[in-house]
Amino acid sequence: MSLPSKTLRRVQLPAGNICKQQQRNATLLQRPHIPYTFTQLIALTDGSTFTLRTTSPAPIFRATKDTRNHALWNPSLSSLRNQEQDEAGRLRAFREKFGRGWDIDAEDVEGGVQDVEGVKEDSLMDLISGAAGGGGWDAECEC
């Protein structure tokens, strides 16, 4: 038995199964990097201590400058003024090269500031007050 050729036809399927939008798989978000923190003992210059969580692995931190011994935090303490340490002699070399104007080592003498070697210098406050009153460098210059 043979089938007539007219009854055989190719069947076309609807194109509804084909996805017309781009598909994208979900990507995993990376977790934020959270560093490990250590417990650190902070020792201030006056001997007081406190603990702190930090990323530094050193167990003890000894501060050389802190709020107890810095002139910026304690401007009224006279023991913190004029702290100049010249172990290597670099300040002395600088003074020899550039002079000693308004130096910390200059001593207060009546009538102005006199240098350690004996050369009289104007103080910074004299220059400021002279400039405000019309004096200063321009008043001394006879150009």
TrEMBL record:
Biological processes annotated in GO: mitochondrial translation
Entry GO CC: mitochondrial large ribosomal subunit
Protein's recorded name: Ribosomal protein bL31m N-terminal domain-containing protein
Ribosomal protein bL31m N-terminal domain: residues covered: 31-76
Single GO term (MF): structural constituent of ribosome
Gene3D superfamilies named in the record: 6.20.130.10
Pfam families, sorted: bL31_N
Superkingdom in the source lineage: Eukaryota
